[in-house]
Structure formats: C-alpha cells, structure tokens
Amino acid sequence: MRIAVTGSIATDHLMTFPGRFADQLVADQLHTVSLSFLVDNLDIRRGGVGPNICFGMGQLGGNPILVGAAGYDFDEYRAWLDRHGVDTGSVRISEVLHTARFVCTTDKDHNQIGSFYTGAMSEARQIELKAVADRVGGLDLVLIGADDPEAMLRHTEECKTRGIPFAADFSQQIARMDGDEIRTLLDGATYLFSNEYEKGLIESKTGWSDEEILGRVGHRVTTLGSRGVRIERAGEEGIEVGCAEEDAKVDPTGVGDAFRAGFLTGLSWGVSLERAAQVGCMLATLVIETLGTQEYTLRRANFMERFTKAYGDVAAAEVQSHLG
C-alpha cells in the first residue's frame, strides 16, 4: 500500500526554569508583565504529528509519504527523516517562513508558559494530493492528521472527490473546530482515529451518536490509554487489543502517533485489524519508554521477543514474516 500521512511538521524547544513562575508575579502589576527567565537547559526535539507517524512507519520498514509544509530551515530535519525511511518528496518548503515551532518553559512546579508559532504550516492548504499521487504512482490511503485546519478540510474534500480512501485523525485540532467542520472531516472516512475523550467530544460537537458515526465511517479506532485500543465497525463485534507491558513510563508524548504508525504499517502488510492494532500497541510501548517522539530505536529481535510475550506465538509468526 502507498500510504500518505498529512499533518503538522514542527520542532519543540523545551526549557526548564529552576524556580517558580508564581514567585515572579506581582499581583497588582499583572497588566504590565515584563519577565525574563534564566533557564537551565534547552531540549530541541523533532515533532509534528506527520513526521512522528512517518518515523514510526519507517522504523517498521515501511516507506510512508510525508505530506505537509515546512520552512526553509527544514534541511536537517529532512535528512533525519530520509535516513529513517520516510519519503519527504512531497513536503512543501516555504520561501519566507520558518518551520512551525513550539517554545515552552516549565518551572519546578511543572507549570508551563508556551507559545506555538504556526509558521510554514499555514501553507499546507496549498498542497494538492493529486500531485502527490502522480509522483508516487497513486495513493491507497491518506491519513489526514492535525494540521492547518483549512488544509485538513481541503485534503478531505480532495480525497472524496478523487475517490482516495482516507483516515480522519483530528487530535489536537478538534478543540478549535466546530461541528460542521468535524462532520465534513469524518463523513466517509475509512478509519476514524481518536482517544476516549476526543470520542465524546466528536459526538458532542457533531450531534451524532456513536451509532450514527459508525454508520458514516468504515472503522472507528479508539485508543484507551493503558487499556489499549478498541476497533468498531457497524454491525460487527468490536475488537479490543491490550497494551504490551512497558519497562518504564518515561514520557507519554507521541504514544498516539506511534500507535497510528504501527496500525497503518500493519494495514500495508495486509494483516488483520487485530494484528495491525497489536503492532501499533507494541510500537507505542517503545515510545512511552523514551524521552522524545522520535528518539526510540526499533531492534527487531527485541521487538519480536516482546511482541510474542504480549500477543502469543501465532500473532508473532504472522508479524515476523512481514517485519523480517
């Protein structure tokens, strides 16, 4: 399967302040705040839902096609993704804007002050999926992840117009979208991804019940945190897959992206939905054990050993034949 992943491309600049923000605030002067925090460290991480998902797919041996917009400062990030099996040939490079960036400072009480610079992400709406499909010889599935909202809507409409199967995955952007936009994005999707909270929010904003949504999508894939994932299809019994046991809980950031990477890769192998979900849960476990969304290493022997322990010999034999 040729799978394209659309979504935000960004870097995170994370800093730590050894004191407390509250100690620096003067109650009667909050209308004229002027503060500078001397931080102890700066951690720059590669991020964005598009690259996070594609990186995981590349680790599993896939060749995902990243679709999104980045700035003229993208060269180093591109080289990293290329080296890890990601096709970056359809990334639009802005001539005037930097790659999107999240800058955040955290104090000793874990309070945060952050800013998100949209930057080149706003140009994602100018990308035509037909050009992507023509370049790679057609598309079998497009995952439409959190990105510039206008881009998400345009990609969805183009998939519908051109008959390209698509997966709807609003994640962070669901909070700013209204009911009409969400209905447009999910109606006709082959797969609808969300976590449990987002599932309820989708139903609340659209005014559609769970049953009505199931009637409008092929499969509803709901991640359940530590309990794994549930996959539902109208008129069929649901599938539930648990998580593999983690060695440590280091950082949950990017766990959902890793699940999607594993699940999509499983689909590209042609395995069952249950097997694909098991691959996704195993990959998500590697991410939760690592600080950063693209800092884990998939060692195939170790991956299969843990996969076998979690899901059994039969499941492992089927996955092993694809993973190599």
Structure notes:
This protein has 324 residues and is of the alpha/beta class. Helix content is 37%, strand content 21%. It is built from 11 helices and 13 strands. The strands form 2 sheets. The chain has a 9-stranded mixed beta sheet, sandwiched between helices. Strands 3-2-6-7 form a 4-stranded mixed beta sheet. α5 crosses α6 (196-206), α9 packs across α10 and α10 (300-311) packs antiparallel against α11 (313-323). It is globular. It starts with a strand and ends with a helix.
Quick gist of this model?
The protein is built from 11 helices and 13 strands. It has helices spanning 49-59, 75-83, 129-136, 149-162, 179-186, 196-206, 210-214, 255-269, 273-288, 300-311, 313-323, and strands spanning 3-6, 10-16, 41-47, 65-70, 87-93, 100-106, 112-117, 141-144, 166-168, 191-195, 219-223, 229-232, 239-241.
Give the topology.
Layout: E1 3-6, E2 10-16, E3 41-47, H1 49-59, E4 65-70, H2 75-83, E5 87-93, E6 100-106, E7 112-117, H3 129-136, E8 141-144, H4 149-162, E9 166-168, H5 179-186, E10 191-195, H6 196-206, H7 210-214, E11 219-223, E12 229-232, E13 239-241, H8 255-269, H9 273-288, H10 300-311, H11 313-323
Parallel strand pairs: 1-4, 1-8, 2-6, 4-5, 8-9, 9-10, 10-11
Antiparallel strand pairs: 2-3, 6-7, 11-12, 12-13
